[in-house]
Amino acid sequence: MLELSERRLGSWERQGLAQRLEYYTFADLVLLRSLIRLTEGGASPAKIRRAVTALRKQFSLMQDPLKELKLFCDSGRIAVRFGDATMEAVSGQLLLNFDQAQLPAMLSFPKQTAHDAMKAAEAARRFESSVWFEQAVELENRGAPHAEVIQAYERALKLDPLSTGVLVNLGTVHFHLKNWDQAQDYYRRALEADPRYALAHFNLGNLFDERGDHGKALLHYLMALRLDPDYSDAHYNLALLYQSSGQVMRAVRHWKAYLRIDPSSTWAVIARQELEKLRRATVIEGARRAGGESGR
C-alpha cells in the first residue's frame, strides 16, 4: 500500500521510529506515511526523533505525534500543520509562508509596534489553545479518563478564556459527571462570550431539565430555537417537555417541526410514535367527552 521497502522499514524499527509489528492498524499506517513524507522532505532519522521528543514535551497528553499530528518537512525544518497555521516542531514557533512577490513588501515594513506584538502574541495563544482543544476532543473520543480530558480542556481555556467551544465542551464533561454547578458555570460563561450561541442555551436546557427545573429548561430551549429555528434537538426536547406537562398542541407542533427537519433518523421513528400516541389520546378524549354530553 505504501510502496515501502523492508530495508527502510527495518531501519526505522532499529532506530525506534516505528514498532516491529506483525499486523498494522490504520493508525500504524498513518505513522509510516508520516515517516515517508518527512524522509522524502529531507528529514534525517535523528531530526525526526528530536521533533517527536520536543512535541511530546509540548503536548504532554499526546501519545504519538507521528500518528496524531500532520508533520511535514519545511525548508529543512520539521513543522506541524493545524488548519491554516504552521508551527515548527522543535522550537514551537509559528511559521509564516510568503511567496516571492511578497518579499519586497515585507522588507519595506516598519518595525513591529507594541500593538502588533500584542496581536501576534494573542494569535499564538489562540493557536496553542486550538491544539489543546483538538487534543482534548481526541482524548474524549478515545474514552480517556475524565481527569485527563478536563486537564486538556483547561489548558486550552487558560490560553483562550473566551473560547466558546472549550467552555461548552468542559460544561458537557461536567454535565455527564453530574457536576451540575460546574457545568452550569461553563455554559453561562460560553453565553457571556457569545450571547447568540444556540448550543450553550440548548445545553443549559438539558441541565435544568435533568435537575427538574422545567421552567428554566423551557426558556433555554426556546432561546436556542429563536437563534436557530431549525435546531432539531431543541424541537425534540421541547416536544417531550410540552407532552409531559399536558400541552398537547404545542407538543404536536414541535414533533412535526422535528420530523420536517429530521425525517429519517432513529429519533424520527420515536417522534412518529409519540405523535401517534397523542393522536390516539386526543381521539379517545374526544369520544369520552362526546359520550358524556350525550348522556346528559
Per the principal axes of the C-alpha atoms, what is the gross shape? elongated
Beta fraction of the residues? 5-15%
Please work out how many helical segments DSSP would assign.
14
Neighbour order of strands in the largest sheet: 1-2-3-4
What would the average pLDDT be, to the nearest integer? Answer: 83
Q: Which structural class matches the secondary elements? A: mainly alpha
The low-pLDDT segments are none
Cα-to-Cα separation, first versus last residue? 83 Å
Biggest sheet details: 4 strands, antiparallel
Radius of gyration based on Cα positions = 27 Å
Count the E strands: 4
Helix content: 55-70%
Compressed to H and E, one letter per element, the order equals HHHHEEEEHHHHHHHHHH
Short précis:
The protein is built from 14 helices and four strands.
Give descriptors for this structure.
296 residues, mainly alpha, four-stranded antiparallel β-sheet, 14 helices, 4 strands, 6% strand
List the topology elements.
Blueprint: H1 6-14, H2 26-40, H3 45-58, H4 65-68, E1 70-74, E2 77-82, E3 85-88, E4 94-95, H5 103-107, H6 114-141, H7 146-159, H8 164-176, H9 180-193, H10 198-210, H11 214-227, H12 232-244, H13 248-261, H14 266-295
Antiparallel strand pairs: 1-2, 2-3, 3-4
Helix pairs in contact: 6-7, 7-8, 8-9, 9-10, 10-11, 11-12, 12-13, 13-14
Give structural notes.
There is one protein chain. The protein is mainly α and 296 residues long. It has 14 helices and 4 strands. It has a domain at 1-91. It has helices at residues 6-14, 26-40, 45-58, 65-68, 103-107, 114-141, 146-159, 164-176, 180-193, 198-210, 214-227, 232-244, 248-261, 266-295; strands at 70-74, 77-82, 85-88, 94-95. A 4-stranded antiparallel sheet has the order 1-2-3-4. The protein is elongated, with a radius of gyration of 27 Å. The N and C termini lie far apart (83 Å). The mean pLDDT is 83.
